[in-house]
Amino acid sequence: MSRPEDTLPPDLHYNDSEAKKYTTSSRIQNIQAQMTNRALELLKLKEPSLILDVGCGSGLSGEILSSVDPQEGGPHIWVGMDISASMLDVALQRDIEGDLMLADIGQGVPFRAGSFDAAISISAIQWLCNADSNDVSSTGRLSRFFNGLYASLKRGGKAVCQFYPKNEQQRTMISGAAIKAGFGAGILEDDPGTKNGKLYLVLEVGGDGGDITGVVKGLDGVDVVDARRKHAEKGRKIHKGSKAWIMGKKEQMERKGKVVKNNSKYTGRKRKITF
Prior knowledge:
- This protein is α/β, with parallel strands linked by helices.
- The protein has helices spanning 10-13, 16-24, 26-43, 60-66, 85-93, 138-152, 168-180, 227-233, 243-255; strands spanning 50-54, 77-82, 99-102, 116-122, 153-163, 184-190, 198-204.
- The protein has a 7-stranded mixed sheet with strand order 3-2-1-4-5-7-6, with helices on both faces.
- β2, α5 and β3 (99-102) form a beta-alpha-beta unit.
- α6 (138-152) crosses α7.
């Protein structure tokens, strides 16, 4: 069975008919509600907050944010971003309470720095792994999104992104882009190894490392690896023209959305002088 991300860009896939079909499906409504409630549980919000809903679609997640009981820290105010005009049109017809923005998250998150207390994203960020043309790269789209998300959250703010990676490479690509943007990051997997398995990328701005998912607190014999420290330990002086310098330049170009040649064993290798 093909994945929707592999067929069409999201703004074309979710046309008028697909948007209505998605929103009226009781199965999808139940799954969306479960994942949104799980994301809220991981955010651990103690009071009404301003939340960014990334890939908000027709507002299924937003409805839950608006209906959180005051005894559980709600209700929350939210702003939704989505690339599909059809999905947002359905949300307007349903008279949801949040504010809506038509925007491509692969081009960034266009809000003032520190605007939001928290962010959620349900089944959206895996779309960033698919470049829609030869002029952009998935690495660049992920970089722009996570850099923008990091800036839009207040210090200490959290984001929880539920996503469906196609493979381990996509999982690593997504979490790596979040770490490079500055987030403390952890991946939590519910029901691993089953068809109902769900992945949640838990992110924190300005955290002090450790288990930011909070799921191993109190467990003995469990070590938490902070990937940000690994990157910091790699910091050293890089000489211009060296392999490390070339790799860094290529990575920088990818973050800008430019297409670069794949790395190989010859990348950065000095050529011998011949006569």
